[in-house]
From TrEMBL:
This is Activator of Hsp90 ATPase AHSA1-like N-terminal domain-containing protein. It comes from Aegilops tauschii subsp. strangulata. Belongs to the AHA1 family. Residues 11-43 are annotated as: Disordered. Residues 52-115 form the Activator of Hsp90 ATPase AHSA1-like N-terminal domain. GO terms for biological process: protein folding.
Amino acid sequence: EKSSYRYWVRQATGEAAPPPVPRKLDPSAANGGGGNPNALGSVWNQAGTWEEKNLNSWANGRIKDLLGSLGSLDFSTGKASIDEVSKCSGDAFLVTVRNKKRVGYNYELSLRFKG
């Protein structure tokens, strides 16, 4: 008996699946109404796969502000306060993965203390 499998099908046989039939979309599906309404991140990322947002400029300013506004620190040998943030470099980013937000950072700080 002859096999019905063909590597390159040039003719449709009775066993072949029918060709797909195009159909019109309703307006709600065409406007993205069928997407996940609770998805985080960008509109293009409705599946919640990996999306990374750069927060370097915000984080650099925020770290300097927070460290500058920090009062004196009490130690057993006396008090110390941060006099200057001389170096604040690194990366901060917000990652949306599997529809969950996660924060990542890597910073190097150089501080001058007064005490």
